[in-house]
Amino acid sequence: MTSRALSHVRLGVVAVVAFAGGLVIASGLSLTPFGYAQQRGQGGKPPAQAVQPVADLSNSFVSISEHVTPAVVSIQTERGPREIRRPRGEQNVPPGLEDFFRQFEPNRTPPMEGSGSGFIVSPDGYILTNNHVVADADKVTVTMLDKRTFTAKVIGRDPTTDVAVIKIDGSDFPTVSLGDDTQSRVGEWVLAVGNPLGLDFTVTAGIISAKGRSGQLRGLYASQYAIVDYIQTDAAINPGNSGGPLVNTRGEVIGINSAIASATGYYSGYGFAIPITLAKTVMNDLIQYGRVRRPILGVSIQDVKAEDAQAAGMKEIRGALVGGASPGGDSPAAKAGIQPGDVIISLDGKDIDRVAQLQRLIRSHKPGQTVDVTVMRYGKKMDFKVKLAEAPGEEQVASNDAGGEDSGGRPASYDKLGISVETVSVDRASRAQIPETQRGVAVTDVQADGPAYQKLVAGSDVLVKVLSPSPQRQLRAPADLDQVVSHLHDGDVVSLLVYNTDLKQTRVVNLRVGG
What we know:
This protein has helices at 19-26, 48-68, 98-102, 131-134, 276-289, 306-312, 332-336, 355-363, 426-431, 478-485, and strands at residues 2-3, 14-16, 72-79, 112-120, 126-130, 139-143, 149-158, 163-167, 177-178, 189-194, 202-213, 230-233, 245-248, 252-261, 271-275, 295-296, 299-303, 320-325, 343-347, 350-351, 370-377, 380-387, 389-390, 412-414, 419-423, 441-446, 461-468, 473-474, 493-500, 505-512. With 515 residues, the protein is an alpha+beta fold.
């Protein structure tokens, strides 16, 4: 099951706070000088009944810190120099002179160091942290609160959730208790513990600001199988905090601190943690199998917007919109009968509000298990039984669309949709490696004030099929789209199957005429 947002709008800069963050610090960090925060007395004393609750909360924070901090570790990583491999013919070097010019260029990357945090989850030394803290490291060193230092072994990493498990040798290590983030509520107090900015074993406090955050945070992941479902907190999180625990007022870990949203790369009030229930399933797989066995439905999905709900015949704006099946024809969902344009509204009887929720429910199963999926299909409620498959090994796919001129005729404009399209020529289809089944009409322009703005991408998107209004219609030329658009009125919703030549996958886009 895949999920990918194609919006080009970003909410600030989302900064991953670990390995790269450590490099920023190493290059020179000027901290504001420490000073005193003193407030002049206002006269009089607060009533005792007001003081006691504050004292109780303070004592609670003290107890939690004393209980958790001994099990938190500081992680230092080292990566040796790497050979730089350049393809032949790079930089227009004349044939036969590559060796001559190479002597003037660096052929190895410099050594790199990074830092982060982690926490011990078992007396025999298993530690949870972030994938990006230990990825590509040649050596991982762990330091405890009591100043003991260990060389750690990386047991396994999962880029799809940014979770990693490392291990140190020994016994009777202090451990943390793992809680249940699904029972936590927005507004609850939490503590973040870690090693930010070189300040080891720092404790900060805040509240749970939100749950189920994904959106622009998907940009942190290169994997098409990434599960993005963060807990948001305003507890201060900075470079070096990555991999440390987010703890509730019962002293239980409910998340792994992982990222911040910031224009500067440092704390701006928005921190994000990976839910511990998700991390636990990943940890168990890594320890038991040495890899993560990812169950998938085999479809691309996206969060439902108002026009998507209208097209599906739903009064509530919720669920996961199916955009297309996984390449290769082995999609479990497609085999069961689920189609592009369907909105998944429940799984095993549990209502689905958003993509991240569906992903987590699927992740709680194992490959080979069967789940009950309920969808809305353009006003009709339908049930399917889907046998989950295991996600295949991932490959990076680069765009082969080099641009150039097409011979598909002049573009046709549609003000009702705010787009211009043209036929995909044989030449373009070959260059962009567009499958025969996905050849339709290419989007050449998107109007800034039209319904398709920020939903379709000019130069990359191809409109393959009209899914609704019925009957469904395959698009091969602008004339095919003419027959649909000519019957649309303001407020109507047209549902389109769209293929993206950069991502090599389909999605469903619902456009409301007139905006």
